[in-house]
Predict the structure.
Amino acid sequence: DWRVRFLVGAFWQQQSHEILQNYRIEGLASSFSVTGWPGTFWLTNQVRQDHDEALFGEVSFDITDKLTATGGVRFFSYDNSLKGFFGFGDTGYSSNYGEVKCFSDEQFRGSPCVNLDKEVKKHDTIGRFNLTYQIDDDKMIYGTWSEGFRPGGINRRDDANAPPYEPDYLSNYELGWKTRWAGNRLTFNGAIFQENWEGIQYSFLPPGGSGLTVIKNAGTARIRGAEADLNWAATYNLSLSGGVAFYDAELTENFCGFFDLDGTPITECPPGTINPQTGDPVDGPQAAAGTRLPVTSKFKGNLTGRYTFDIGSMEAYFQGSVVHVGDRRSSLLPVDSAALGDLAAYTTLDLSAGIRKNSWSVDFYIKNATDERGELAKFTQCAFACVLTDFVPEYPDGQVYTITSQPRIFGIRFSQKF
């Protein structure tokens, strides 16, 4: 109840992940096996350690009885490492993975040697500022500037095309409102915002058939949007709720896909530009400024209606929910997106009904009642132009797999409170 209020805190976290992936072929000759691992065609034997710590705090000040300002800051640091072995034995299969790339004879956790030992660390500061104006007990408007980040890390693929990646940052500018109307029977909340995303961490499966996902920093992007939700007690028995969201998300710099010698992403790369890490010329940016971001629809919406009533001494209800998601790009890179195709828009319907008496209840539900196969993601098993496509001529860019939403599900749920 003080006019000035503050909060301070500290955060510390240590994570350790032991990774063992042993790809075995029964009866494999020892000459084709990873040294010391009979029958193992490919071995991943690593330890990943992530250390994070932060100091944070914020202060709120009531400028007037209606206007409040809040400012906050977070000092953070991280130290992430990955050490161990991955790849084939010394069999001549590959010049990029396995024992041929070892630089230490240390038998790490039983591995023949060490071919990956990297560490990334960084410390930085982010902040936030908020102004809140309480129009009355039922209506409030606010404005917020805030920053967020994700720490950088290390790619398992250990070559010049997959160096450690940097953190990415998000700056958010937001104006919003939270309101109640009609004696609290109606609430209407919403916001308009712009987010500037720097150093985007973009994950993809590169050509070549290695099967190792690579994360790179893909320049900057801008997301503009508006979101709103409404909840309405239309009658004593009927309640309606819904939400809408509109997004305009695109790159604001070219994604060239390579770095300068200091590890900074290059964003100007017209055709003929030399990649300083390989010495080869490039054909231009892999994704030009203005490219729409993947897996983000321009519109999403949902609507739920619930009707409750009494059956003797029991409470009963019917409910229906509709969710719509617009079409989306499947990948950031136009060449990948063209091969995979876009993710189509979809609409799902969920239905449920139930009864309750005292401490027990029974619910009957149908999820995805129309059996819609909403497209959630698309990918190829071995990346574009991978060696396996030589044996599958009908899929010159790799066979496309689509992950869909769950099919229609019927269910009965019984609950008992004690």
About this structure: The CA atoms of residues 105 and 113 lie 5 Å apart. The two ends are 37 Å apart (CA to CA).
